[in-house]
Design a protein that fits this description.
It is built from 21 helices and no strands. 74% of the residues lie in helices and 0% in strands. By secondary structure, the chain is an all-alpha fold.
Length: 478
Amino acid sequence: MRFLQGLVGLLDRGAPGLALLAAAVVTCMAILYQNAGIAVLFGILFLPGLLLFLRWSGRSDNAERLVFVIVFATASIVACATNAYYMHQSGTPYAYESSDDDYGFDCRALDIYPSNLLDFPTLRDDIAALGSGTWSRAYNYSIFLAFVYRGMDALGFEPHALYPRLVNALLLAALACMVHFMARRCNLCPWQSRLAAYLCGLSPLMVYVSAHTYRDLLPSLGIASALAALIELLTPPPMACAPSCHWRIRALLLLAFGLTLAGLLRETYLPMLVLISIVCVPLARVSKPWSMLAVGGLALLAGTVLLVIGTEFLTSSSDLEKLDYYHTRHADVTGNITGAVFRLPYLISLPARFVLRNVSPLPMSQGIATGNFWSLGTVLWFFGLPFLFRSVRAAFRADGWSHNGALRIVVFGFLTFYFLNIATSLQDRHIVNYIPAASVVTICGLAQNPRSIQKPLIIMLALASLLLLAFLTVKAFF
């Protein structure tokens, strides 16, 4: 634990230098691509972001300021490096050109940004025609990017592929600040709370997504905002922050913001967040472990009702087609472990999906350097699993039951989206939806028994060796 505490202190002390380095790198990109808008947008996002995202508790918080600066600066540097790498490799700023969402979202935004962005019916038809011909909520991300391009155009700057990636850096920094808030409310000490925020904001899994033009960070921010609002509404705040009318209004607004943001980008996330909100009302307040029977019954009832409502009203046919697309795309791939898992009968495949989710994307198995950087996050995730599951168990333990309502909210939110990913798409990018909550849960597990760290890590190292041996065996024969 002393090593981790020293690492957090080192990151904190390096914040000013990292911010200057990010500014220098962004300026170099602006000069290289002859587009001053890159540096201007960086400044616009960096300075107001400090004010917008750091006063949730009603006071200036220097710890959250450090988290914001470090995560935003790091994500901006990686975004610039990623863009330069792709330009050097293929002459375009995209990893896989037309076969990837990174290319599709950006190109649709570039096509529609000169249009009337307030004429939503026409805009929906135009952007659907650019894609599959059928409207999907995923296209809302292209509309969001079109507003970014329009704003920069109003300032006199040409569009550039780095604009969405710098915006994603801001979203990742905001996510890290949300993680810090949730960690503090889960009774972690200041440096442990910052460690949880850095675990989320600096994870290669998260930084990779922010360095591309993907929509995933927006719904992830919506999920984290909803969980933070539920913690504010349902668990006692610190004595220094006494409840007030304004405090509750802010929490309700944040909850509405989270539900709206997640629902606008993905059809299935709104009913999932409503389910979490309903279940967390008794979950955060029960005083006896046996009361979980009542909570479980309520969860089952709410889940059944929401499944019916979601199927009829909230989930479009395009979303069901998307799930079938993921299954077909994975199952049709030969010579691939994921394809073999998806070709199994669904119920039989679930245990294999669970294992695959915790070791995927496989480290250093990607075809490009940025993919290998992304997969390094799997190593971090894998070795954090013992502490993650230790905290999940502790959240529902009898001792100290009445003092961990905030942790139970975070754990339930994590488990919902974790198993949703396993049961549906198993898409690697979708893990960003539960990593913020998982970061808090993991550090809580680490803090529960700081002297018991080496043994779980040795066990996971041995397990990793066995999994590697099994992977090489399967790959050799199948």
